[in-house]
Amino acid sequence: MSWQAGAGRIRDARRALVWRAAHWGWREFQQAGIVTAGTPAGRAFRRFGDGSVMAFPTGSVFGEHWITVGDGTLIAAFVTMSAGLLPGQDLGPDPVLRIGDRCVIGRGSHIVAHQSVDIGDDVWTGPYVYITDQNHGYSDPDVPIGRQLPVNRAVSIGAGSWLGAGAIVLPGARIGRNVVIAAGSVVRGEVPDRCVVAGVPAKVVREHTGDGWRPPGHAPYPVG
Question: Exactly one of 110, 136, 208, 218 is catalytic; which is it?
Answer without folding.
Answer: 136
